[in-house]
Amino acid sequence: MRLLKLSALFATSFFLSSVAMAAAFTSVTIGGASYYDLTTTPTKPVIYGGFAGSCTGDGNSTCDSCTGSGLTPCNKNATYPTLILTITLTADTTLPTNGTVTVKIDDTSVQLNSTPYISGSSLTVKMLWSQICSKVQGGTTDCSNAVNSDLVVSISGTGTTTTSISATMQVITSAATTATYADCPEGTPATANTGFCHFTAFPGDSKIYTDPIVSDGYPTSTSGIDFRDLIFFYEEQIPADGNDPATTVGRITNASPTSVIPVSSTVFPPDVDDRLTGLTNGKTYCAVMANRDLAGNIYYFTPATVDPTTLCATPEPVVGLLDDKHCFIATAAFGSDMAPEVQSFREFRNKYLIPYAWGQNFVKTYYKYSPKYAAMISQNETAKIAVRGVLWPLLFFARLSVALGFWFALAITVFGCLTIWGLYRRLILGENVRGEL
Fold it and tell me: With respect to CATH, is domain 5-175 assigned 2.40.50.140?
């Protein structure tokens, strides 16, 4: 694993440790961390260490613990006690070559792994994660207890216009050990702060929709570090599985292919792009969901007690009104996915459904339930004729909307329905509707 180096230019200068000084550190480069964040608190960069699973690194770079068999907490950029955290700070002035360098966490000095390197305006310090973890209250050298503390790097001496410069960073670690979440299907109370705790797979075009359910308190987690996104581990169903979802799900491990699902937690419930994309149409896939926190730890997997049939789906091309080539609208009603009627439905979908959240939800619901009914209708000629009859009014509305606009088409449709209802009452039922609409 290459050395993880994330660098950024500070939006504001670090606070100085002396009122008299005018110099400051202005940029930082980090190596040997799971994740590095400058966007949340520009005056206090955050360094994350994720301890989950087991892997052996070279001491200078993180390692991938998402390997091997089974589904256990892991981290694709895992830190470990013997890993060296490297911090390089750049000042806006020349630093004293023989300056005294100190590193403290919670006001306790941290033993450095090597002599600090000072060159011009640059200062590099290195320390083991075991040293950082053990210096906090209740800390341990194996980093099994969480850390959330300030790390202060200072240099003082002669040879510059100032006597001392310091920079403050926040170090946060997470040691994930919880393997699975308590499944929370619709109507079942969810355990708070366990992230997303249920999903159901249903097909789309080259994708699978997951429709995940979230627990209260998101993005806060039980480990004290916020969740960041969702990770889906999945496998393609193969002949050896015998078309058995349980067998396919059973082959999913930490080493299986993954799909990252972005989550925006600025609102609740959070916004989720719940699609597993890049899949092959006509092939069946089964997936297991897990939550990933800001330190990169992946845990709270789908438990083995969940019905495996709900974790599998077969993507298909989208033609017809909303769904794939097996959709009764394309094959049963109009006979071809390229029929003019089908093209009109497709135009309506693209213009009035896909651009809006309610339309997208409608499309996803259609994906979820239509295949079963499509198969039933395709085997019954009477049902095909009935469906075709139902679709003609919808086709008229779709074409009118595309040509004249949705609201104008809706007004014409409502007026037409009221007119037909009035004629029915007068001519068929023999009611006197004079003076009524």
Answer: no
